[in-house]
C-alpha cells in the first residue's frame, strides 16, 4: 500500500501541498488545530483562511514576479490560485478575493477529495521516522510544536520574530555616490575587503535624516510583541529616540572607511549595505530594522545619499513570525537535513506572503508524493519563480542574515538585456518569458515521469 502523507497545518501551504500530493495518487491526512485550538488572528475554522489582506497582489505575469508565480501555480493546477480566480473581486491589476467564500470553497474542495482526510487537534511533537510529514504551520506555529522543532534544530535556528532590514536592488543604487569597502579594510581577500556598500552623509544630511526618521509614521507594537526580542535588536527609530547621535555611534558609525569618490572628505555618518544573496543582486541596509509604515519608510530611506532612486525588493519590519534558518537546515528537497522524513513548507521556511507560502506548499506536496511513489523529480529550474524562491531558502540566501522574503526578480539569475535600468519593462519580460518556458518544460518532465 502507498504510504500516507501527513501534513501539519491547513493554511495556504498545507492545503496546496495536500491537493498536489493527493492528485499524484498519495493519500493525505491534514492535521489542523483550529477550531479545537484557536489563534488570536483567525476567525473561522476554514482551511486557507486569509488572516490579513484579501489580496494575492499583482496578477501581471509579464512584468511582476508575484504575477509570474500566479501563472506557474495555475499551470500546475494549483488549488489556491484556481479557487482565488473563482472568487475574484475587482482590484485593478491585483488578484483580490472575497475571503470567506474563498476559504470555504478551499475547505469544501479538500473535504471532497477522496484521498484527503482532515483531522482536528493540536500536534505537539515531531513525527516518527516511518511517517512522511510536511510541517506547514505558518507564522503562528503553536508553542508545543515550536518547542519540538527548536529542540531538534537548535534554539538559534528557529526565530519567533522577524527583524527585517530593508532590501534594495543593487542595480538601483547610485555607485557614483556609494562605494564598496569593509570597515578598516578587514578581510583576507579582495571580496572580503569590499564586502559592504557604503553611503556617506554630511552633518546636514544626517540631521535631516534623523528629523525625517523621528517624524515618520510608525506602526504600533502589539502586547507581548517585544518580549524576548529587543535585547538583541532595536528598531532604528527607537535608537534615534534615545539620542540624535545614537545611530552615528551604532549602525551608521563612519569609522574605518574612506570615501573613494572624495578621499579627503571625512563622512559624518555612513549607511552600510551588505550583500543579501549569492547572486549579488540584493543588498540589505545593515541595522535598519524598523516599524515605520511602508510609505514613510520609502520616503525616509530615499533621503540617504546613493539611495535617491532606490528600488526595494522588500521594506523593513518587525513581526511575530516563527521561521527556520532554512539555508542551513533544509536540503534542496525542502527536507530537514537531520530528519529527512520531515519537509517544511510555507511561511515557516522563510518565505513571505500568501502566494509564496502556497507555492512552497505546491512544491513540497509534489516532492513528498514523488518520494513516496519512488520517483525522482527533476530539479526545479532556478530561472522560474518557484525555483528562484526554492533556491533562495535552501542555500541562495546568506544564512547569517536570513530573513523572510517575498518573490522578486532579484532572486532570479540575471538576464542579459540591453538598456539596463532604463529598459526595465523589456528586461522583466525576458525574465518571465524564460521562466514560463522553463516551468512548462519542468511540468512536462514531471508528467512524463508520472506516466512511466
From TrEMBL:
InterPro entries: FAD/NAD-bd_sf, MnmG-rel, MnmG-rel_CS, MnmG_N, TrmFO. Its main location: cytoplasm. NAD-binding protein involved in the addition of a carboxymethylaminomethyl (cmnm) group at the wobble position (U34) of certain tRNAs, forming tRNA-cmnm(5)s(2)U34. Catalyzes the folate-dependent formation of 5-methyl-uridine at position 54 (M-5-U54) in all tRNAs. It comes from the Bacteria. It catalyses: uridine(54) in tRNA + (6R)-5,10-methylene-5,6,7,8-tetrahydrofolate + NADH + H(+) = 5-methyluridine(54) in tRNA + (6S)-5,6,7,8-tetrahydrofolate + NAD(+); uridine(54) in tRNA + (6R)-5,10-methylene-5,6,7,8-tetrahydrofolate + NADPH + H(+) = 5-methyluridine(54) in tRNA + (6S)-5,6,7,8-tetrahydrofolate + NADP(+). Residues 5-375 form the MnmG N-terminal domain. PROSITE patterns: GIDA_2 (PS01281). Its cofactor is FAD. FAD binds at residues 9-14. Pfam families: GIDA. Belongs to the MnmG family. TrmFO subfamily. It is found in: Cytoplasm. Keywords: Cytoplasm, FAD, Flavoprotein, Methyltransferase, NAD, NADP, Transferase, tRNA processing. This is Methylenetetrahydrofolate--tRNA-(uracil-5-)-methyltransferase TrmFO. It comes from Thalassobacter stenotrophicus. GO terms for cellular component: cytosol. One of its GO terms (biological process) is tRNA wobble uridine modification. One of its GO terms (molecular function) is flavin adenine dinucleotide binding. Its EC number is 2.1.1.74.
